[in-house]
Amino acid sequence: MIEMHDVYKQYPNGVMAANGITIHIKQGEFVYVVGPSGAGKSTFIKMMYREERPSKGDVIVNGMNLAKIKNTKVPYVRRNIGVVFQDFKLLPSLTVYENIAFALEVIEEHPKNIKKRVMEVLDLVNLKHKARMLPNELSGGEQQRISIARSIINNPKVMIADEPTGNLDPETSWEIMEIFEEINTRGTTIVMATHNREIVNTIRHRVIAVENGRIVRDEQRGDYGYES
User: Fold this and answer.
1) Domain residues of the chain, as ranges?
2) Could you tell me the fold of the domain covering 2-219?
3) What is the pLDDT of residues 176-185, one digit of tens each?
């Protein structure tokens, strides 16, 4: 499902954000990516949806080597990869419905199918009643739920989440995690970078720890392993 083979990523300023990473993540796994700030976590997961291209090595997601595909192919690859960000990245001038529908409109899905699918994912995140509202009319937790709904609109095989609870209060963070758990039980692979010690130690999954661009720990049902 997700494989990295001897992957290196060096930025123009000389920083080595990935230093010989080899990893295999199976279909349906839920994986936390942890580590100190600046350890290379974001680069690690950005390479999984081709936001970053490795300097060396192979990154294979859904059977495609993202290190070697042309830039023109990236939008097609991302149709099978859902991405959830810390800062939501919703389009402020579009309603909740329009933000989610946009992902299907760009691939020219039939309007009837778009409406059906949008309402399905809104139901999953319990926000059907907010469909006509604008993002700035929602709480942070509601905006993140919409971000999640948008990320799964194409039924992706893989979901990448970069600090999805980082801007949320504890109670809302747990609510968001319940949604991720439900998505995972439906077969979607989830890779989530996080600094949330309590979540990692409570909802146990595989833990990959990254430090100085290297994987220093890889444990099934692991713990966070760092001081909060």
Assistant:
1) 2-219
2) Rossmann fold (3.40.50)
3) 999 999 999 9
